[in-house]
Amino acid sequence: MRLDVGAARILVPTTIRRGDVIDVRALIEHPMATGLFRDSEGHPIPAHFINDVSVTYGDREVAHFVWTSGLSRDPFVEFSLVADREAPLKFVWKDNRGGVFTQQVDVKFVA
Amino acid sequence: MPAFTRRAFLQWSGLACFMLTARRLLALAPLRPRDDVPWKVQQVLQQLFGDRPMQPGHVQLDVPTVAADGRVVPVMIESDLPMTANAYVKAIHVLVDNNPDIHLAEFRLTPEVGQAFVSTRIKMRMTSPVRAIIETSDGAVWGTAADVRVTINGCG
């Protein structure tokens, strides 16, 4: 299966009102290789996983995750957020080989 | 009178059988006392929280009892602790006893998330207890654990 490493999606509800506690879901395509396995030719597969995730809402960091290779491939995370301002919600994923992937969505209120 | 009659033999063997069964049943009953934390996990806990005691309660851990595929095990952790500016859940830790990396993930939160809740998917090498441990801003540590049976190992 081919993998588009770093392709990420963030999902927030379509209708948000000021002050709602919303569900934020984020998924990024990444092998999350542990380094403990070998490929079909017997070469070891080097460890390659996301170890640091930062979530910024507007100008403040609201959550920070420290991960290991123990998360599943294409790591997914869901958490809540108090939508008290219209601002971009930005994710930055960093992996152990220096890869940095970002994605953001705008938190907008319905009229 | 012969010392070893057929009746005596049957009585004794019946008693022996009963005792063996009873012992097996007794061993089955408490599958695993919750408080016996393996040494390797205790070391990780010591590193994370020092001497702060881990109290039971306030943490709800939702994992499947049987995971068909150890590569993708859904984990949901929730707490009823408040998320206010001066008292909030600072971090949620996920530990899997029998994984190469015991301390699997740490989710640091701020009061702005509104609710101490995290859901994700993890890998499990084999059947193991999964521990969810919550650290609050005032330093209290709350934890819970659940056993997950893994039928296909998943560190791939």
| Beta-strand segment tally of chain A | 7
* Average of per-residue pLDDT values of chain A: 91
Low-confidence stretches of chain A: none
Q: Which class best fits the helix and strand makeup of chain B? A: alpha+beta
| Beta-strand content of chain B | 35-45%
Q: How many H/I helices of chain A?
A: 0
Q: Uncertain regions of chain B: pLDDT < 50 for 5+ in a row?
A: none
Largest sheet of chain B: 6 strands, mixed
Topology as H/E string of chain A? EEEEEEE
- Percentage of residues in helical conformation of chain B: 10-25%
Helix content, binned percent of chain A: under 10%
Shape of chain A: elongated
Rg value of chain B: 22 Å
SS content category of chain A = mainly beta
Largest interface comes to: A-B, 29 and 28 residues
Separate helix tally of chain B: 2
Overall outline of chain B: elongated
Number of strands of chain B: 9
Task: Estimate what percentage of residues of chain A fall within beta strands.
Answer: over 45%
* Distance, first to last CA of chain A: 43 Å
Computed CA radius of gyration of chain A, to the nearest angstrom: 16 Å
Write the layout of secondary structure elements.
The complex is a heterodimer of chains A (111) and B (156).
Chain A: E1 8-11, E2 20-28, E3 50-57, E4 60-67, E5 76-83, E6 87-95, E7 100-107
Antiparallel strand pairs in A: 1-2, 2-5, 3-4, 3-6, 6-7
Chain B: H1 6-28, H2 39-49, E1 54-56, E2 59-62, E3 66-67, E4 73-79, E5 89-96, E6 103-109, E7 117-122, E8 128-136, E9 141-150
Parallel strand pairs in B: 1-9, 3-9
Antiparallel strand pairs in B: 2-4, 4-7, 5-6, 5-8, 8-9
